[in-house]
Design a protein that fits this description.
Spore Coat Polysaccharide Biosynthesis Protein SpsA, Chain A; 237 residues; globular; alpha/beta
Length: 237
């Protein structure tokens, strides 16, 4: 009889100043993953929060063995995601999502059930309101990936992505640690290498609590850096 070992999952969540919602987000994900009978850990990366986020996480952890807290100095959203990828490559699968609850855990099972046939599975943000500036940045990111890496993923910076670790670990250490949007490069690599890609639309809900940490001039500067970093990484391949 063939033996099918239980696959392991690391859920990577970068968090910055989300004291109003982080416990609800953790509860929803634990409830979702428990129902699917998955062997998992939730790795929350506290990126130097200045509010009560860390204290709330520590209190929540006392009764939840699945929660692993990484407290770190602030380095930004992108570098924190990349750190999570590098430190959790021992799991079979890595799922990355954000801490703002803009994409519901209830849709995760649609990706998990399809995992056997794919290397990366993404939720494409649908029903999403964006100001013109963010729409433009999203368009430029998508066109950059398509032009320099290839076609295959629409929402190249989606924060709702399930990735096969054996594929992801090949690149997570080669992507520079200061990369503003590592998920864009990861998406590009999946297209460039013609990996098996699965992407479905998932409703996106606007932020209900807290504030967007990257906006205005900081957003434009970061987006310019992302464009340069994405192109230069492709040139070095």
């Amino acid at each position: 009889m063939e033996h099918n070992p239980i696959e392991t999952l690391a859920l990577v969540i970068p968090v910055y100043n989300e004291s109003q919602i982080i416990s609800d987000v953790a509860k929803e994900w634990i409830g979702c993953l428990d129902k699917l009978n998955i062997k998992y850990d939730i790795h929350v990366y506290n990126d130097g929060s200045t509010d009560e986020t860390l204290a709330i996480l520590n209190t929540f952890k006392k009764d939840n063995n699945h929660l692993i807290i990484h407290d770190k100095n602030n380095s930004g959203h992108g570098p924190t995601i990349l750190e999570g990828y590098r430190e959790n490559s021992r799991y079979d699968w890595i799922f990355q999502t954000d801490s703002d609850n803009e994409m519901s855990p209830e849709y995760f099972q649609r990706l998990w059930k399809k995992r056997k046939d794919y290397d990366i599975l993404l939720g494409r943000r649908s029903q999403r309101y964006q100001p013109f500036s963010r729409k433009l940045i999203s368009l430029i990111s998508r066109l950059t990936v398509r032009l320099f890496y290839g076609d295959g993923i629409w929402d190249v910076n989606s924060p709702f992505r399930l990735m096969r670790s054996s594929v992801l670990r090949q690149h997570s250490w080669s992507i520079p640690s200061n990369t503003f949007a590592p998920n864009v490069i990861v998406s590009g690599l999946m297209c460039f290498e013609k990996r098996r890609i699965f992407e479905i639309p998932i409703p996106h809900h606007g932020r209900q609590t807290g504030e967007v940490s990257i906006r205005n001039m900081k957003l434009y500067i970061g987006s310019c850096n992302s464009f340069i970093q994405t192109v230069m990484y492709r040139v070095k391949l």
